[in-house]
Amino acid sequence: MHDAIDEKLLKHLIYGRGVSDFLITQHVDGQFMLSVRYAEVSDWVPVRSREKNPRTWARLDTLASQLWKLGVRKWYTELTQEVVTSHAHKLRPKKNLPE
Question: Mind listing the domains of the chain with CATH numbers?
Answer without folding.
Answer: 5-78 (3.30.720.210)
